[in-house]
Write a structure and sequence with these properties.
Shape: globular
Largest sheet: 6 strands, antiparallel
CATH topology of the largest domain: Rossmann fold
CATH class of the largest domain: Alpha Beta
Distance between the termini: 43 Å
Structural class: alpha+beta
Number of strands: 21
CATH superfamily of the largest domain: Probable inorganic polyphosphate/atp-NAD kinase, domain 1
Strand content: 25-35%
Strand order of the largest sheet: 8-7-20-17-10-11
């Protein structure tokens, strides 16, 4: 299995890592063995070479080593092969498992923080810092980030997350290429916080739903929904196939009706749009992709609305979205938004980093809101 060499090489990098070098480091690698980065032979070969090169760099470094080891959660993971646990990797076995592992890590961190303050001698000691490495698709990352987002902010600040591009699409990963992402483990880094996107509805108990890359409604959510349904039944990346199919059949399954959309960009009065949107997408920032690198947000603006359009034009637009050229067309409206409130009469699907939910008439008005920065990630340290 490719998961074993991945675990060994990544553990070597973590042992030498310069992440928060003044505190004990406890790492956990949460990996989905069924992700495309492990199972697609061409991708795994490229990833393996990147891992070996990074490990050679790490082994030539005298960084850390003394105060870095796997988390207790990883070491004691139930049902996990012993050799993987010893390397700090927990292999996910079912949907929701990555979130459960993160919950166990939060409990471990809370106990460690409490223990560090039990005696006067220990009060000066720093509790461990927890590094969570997501090695799967966008679903794995979404589970981990969502569980961290719901944690106490003080406890959450003892964590940082690295999202490796080990899935099929990897739109929510920190970098497109694994070699670039691994530099977060081999070079000096600094912390910064990322926001979440939160979808709330008028129906009590339905939501909120979270995303950390793009949250959208309409045609693209339908494509995501059908891709998820056919996962495992079609080879490779079926997203692009469903884009073609959805262009033909979406209007027959979901009526595209008029909507009132209020856009809140700051303290000023909201901008009111009355449109018939084919799709509406809001990102955690601009310059983001979804659906295997479709450049839906091609510039610094973080929201995009594409108006309903005839079939042949839909087919043309899907090719333009691939490169971001749709921004120059009359059907597209790009803007900045901190919050978007929308309502309509027709049911439509929403997608949150690859997970979908059906919104019905009683769920409106619904809101997509960009939260304050909350979860710590890593970036290469700036040179002064």
């Amino acid at each position: 299995m490719n998961i074993e060499p991945f675990a060994g090489l990544t553990a070597e990098l973590c042992a030498h890592s310069l992440v928060v070098p003044d505190r004990p480091l406890r790492w956990t690698i949460i990996a989905n063995p069924g992700a495309g980065g492990f199972t697609i032979s061409g991708r795994w070969k490229k990833h393996h070479e990147a891992l070996k090169a990074a490990a050679r760099t790490a082994c030539n470094s005298n960084a850390r080593r003394e105060n870095s080891r796997p988390s207790q959660t990883a070491l004691a993971a139930e049902g996990n092969p012993g050799e993987l646990s010893a390397l700090g990797l927990v292999a996910t076995r079912h949907p929701g498992h990555a979130g459960s592992i993160t919950g166990d890590l939060l409990r471990e961190a809370a106990e460690a923080a409490e223990t560090a303050g039990e005696t006067p001698a220990k009060k000066t000691a720093c509790p461990p810092f927890y590094l969570v490495i997501c090695a799967g698709g966008d679903g794995t990352s979404l589970e981990v980030l969502s569980r961290l987002y719901s944690a106490d902010p003080g406890l959450r600040d003892n964590f940082a997350v690295i999202r490796l591009p080990m899935g099929t699409a990897n739109d929510g990963a920190d970098f497109w290429e694994l070699a670039d992402a691994l530099e977060l483990l081999t070079l000096p880094t600094e912390l910064f916080k990322v926001p979440a996107l939160r979808l709330s509805t008028a129906t009590e108990g339905k939501g909120p739903f979270l995303a950390f890359n793009i949250l959208s409604v309409g045609l693209d959510a339908f494509v995501t929904h059908m891709t998820n349904k056919m996962k495992g039944k079609l080879p490779g990346d079926s997203y692009r196939l469903w884009v073609d199919i959805a262009s033909l059949f979406y209007d027959r399954l979901y009526k595209v009706g008029p909507m009132e959309i209020q856009v809140f960009a700051g303290a000023e009065e909201p901008r009111i749009l009355r449109e018939t949107p084919l799709l509406l997408a809001v990102g955690a920032s601009g310059r983001r992709t979804y659906g295997s690198r479709n450049l839906i947000l091609p510039d610094d603006r973080n929201a995009c609305l594409i108006r309903q359009t005839p079939l042949l034009r839909k087919i043309a637009l899907k090719k333009l979205i691939r490169t971001g050229s749709h921004a120059e067309t009359g059907e597209t409206l790009l803007f900045n938004a901190r919050r978007v409130e929308f309502r309509g009469r027709e049911p439509l699907l929403a997608q949150m980093d690859g997970e979908t939910v059906l919104l019905r008439r009683e769920d409106f008005p619904a809101n997509i809101e960009l939260t304050s920065p909350a979860i710590q990630a890593l970036k290469k340290k700036s040179r002064v």
